[in-house]
Give the backbone structure.
Amino acid sequence: MPKSLFLNSAPPLMRLFIASAMALTVSAHAMAVSSPQSTTPSASDVAGKTKASGDYGKTCNPNEAMIKSTRHGDENTDPVIVCSAYAPYGVAGTMSNYKTPEPEKGDDAYGNWSSAINEGNPSGHTYTCPEGTLMTGIKHKDDENGSTYYRCSAFSINGVVQKLRPGTVLKFPEDDHEKSCPAGQIMIGRSHLCDNDGKCDEKASSTYTCGYVRAL
């Protein structure tokens, strides 16, 4: 039976209950909408220079943030970063820079890049986007011990910057993973860890921290 006919034939109170349930279902699926424009990073994403071994970079499209990372191979294999629009509870949000842009670092109206962080730091490293921001890009220079940079953007709904709370933590071997934030969450941080033998190269573990906005 068509949904419209089913609704019309139901008592008024039942019609209200059915309509509310349908709206809730639509809202749940609208939290994070996959972007078809997110593809394998290209050489041009890496500071506009010719690609060298271990170099990669990805900047999300305006008003999109990172939601998935895939990599099957060593430092010569680029990870594939997937970005998505983010609409917690069905309410669309926008991304912008959170501090005065520094064009020489690649900042623009949609986000700010971090300073260089040593990927092969003997103690590993953890980077979390500042409060009220989410991750909208990542780039790396040189081999598995080179420098990693993170791009973060302020996340606003109806002009109000939202606080993103840490949620699911995805842990995986850096050189072999395919991980996505759960529905309703978006990436806000990354760690590259040292394994028990003290190695922090591409075979060591990494994590992504996913965040969420509390119910509006």
